[in-house]
C-alpha cells in the first residue's frame, strides 16, 4: 500500500507543479509565456506522463474526485479512499509550496492569483457560482466516463493515458475562462492554501462539484458502458 500512496503523492505533485506552474509563470511573463493553449496542454501532459510512469502501481488517480468516481463505479475499494485522498492532497500541497518558494525567489515578486480556482469576481471571465458549479460537474463527469471507457477490458491496452491526458487538455481548454479549471479537489486545495482569503472561502465548490460530477459520470458509465 505504501508504494501506491507514494505513487499517488508523486503523480499529484507532478500534476500541480507542472500544470499550475505553467499557469503561474505564463501569467508572470506573458511576453515569454506559453499562453492559454500551453497551460491546457501542460495539465494534460502531467497526467499522461505520470499515468505511464506510476499508473501501473497505484492506478494513476492523482485526483480525489477520480478516486471517488472509480469507487462508485466499483473499480476501486472504498476502504482505500481516505489514504489515497490524503496522499493526493499532500502531493498537491507540497507542489504548491515548491512553486511558492520558486515564485517568491525573485525580488519584488507577488504570487497574485497563483493559479487558484474561483467564481464570481475571481473567475478569469467573471462567471457566476452557478456557471462554475455546472461546468465543473459536467466536465468531471465526462472525465470519469473517459477514464472508465479507456481502461475497459475491450479497449486495446496501453493507450488509456493518452486518452485521459487529452481529455484533461480539452477540459482545460473549455473551462480555464470559467473557473481556471479544477476538476480536482487536491489541485484546488494546494493553491488555495497559499492564496488564502477568497480562495479558501470558495474552495468548497471545488470539492463539491468535482466529486459530484465524478459520481454522476461513474453512474452513467455503469448504466451503459460496463457490459463486455
TrEMBL record:
Principal place of residence: membrane
Membrane topology: Multi-pass membrane protein
UniProt KW Membrane keyword: yes
Superkingdom, taxonomy of origin: Bacteria
Positions occupied by motif NPA 2: 184-186
Alphabetical list of Pfam families matching this protein: MIP
Reaction(s) the record says it catalyses: H2O(in) = H2O(out)
Keyword list, A-Z: Cell inner membrane, Cell membrane, Membrane, Repeat, Transmembrane, Transmembrane helix, Transport
Protein name: Aquaporin Z
Species for this entry: Agrobacterium arsenijevicii
Gene name of the encoded protein: aqpZ
Amino acid at each position: 500500500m505504501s508504494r501506491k500512496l507514494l505513487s499517488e503523492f508523486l503523480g499529484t505533485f507532478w500534476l500541480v507543479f507542472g500544470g499550475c506552474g505553467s499557469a503561474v509563470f505564463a501569467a508572470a511573463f506573458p511576453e515569454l509565456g506559453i499562453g492559454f493553449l500551453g497551460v491546457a496542454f501542460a495539465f494534460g501532459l502531467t497526467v499522461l506522463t505520470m499515468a505511464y510512469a506510476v499508473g501501473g502501481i497505484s492506478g494513476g488517480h492523482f485526483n480525489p474526485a477520480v478516486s471517488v468516481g472509480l469507487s462508485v463505479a466499483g473499480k476501486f475499494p472504498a476502504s482505500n479512499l481516505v489514504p489515497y485522498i490524503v496522499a493526493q492532497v499532500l502531493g498537491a500541497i507540497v507542489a504548491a509550496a515548491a512553486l511558492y518558494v520558486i515564485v517568491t525567489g525573485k525580488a519584488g515578486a507577488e504570487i497574485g492569483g497563483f493559479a487558484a480556482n474561483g467564481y464570481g469576481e475571481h473567475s478569469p471571465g467573471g462567471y457566476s457560482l452557478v456557471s462554475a458549479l455546472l461546468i465543473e460537474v459536467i466536465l468531471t463527469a465526462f472525465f470519469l466516463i473517459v477514464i472508465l471507457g479507456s481502461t475497459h477490458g475491450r479497449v486495446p491496452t496501453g493507450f488509456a493515458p493518452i486518452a485521459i491526458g487529452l481529455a484533461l487538455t480539452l477540459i482545460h481548454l473549455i473551462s480555464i475562462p470559467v473557473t481556471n479549471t479544477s476538476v480536482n479537489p487536491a489541485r484546488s486545495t494546494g493553491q488555495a492554501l497559499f492564496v488564502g482569503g477568497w480562495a479558501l472561502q470558495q474552495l468548497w465548490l471545488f470539492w463539491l462539484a468535482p466529486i459530484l460530477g465524478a459520481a454522476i459520470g461513474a453512474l452513467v458509465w455503469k448504466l451503459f458502458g460496463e457490459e463486455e
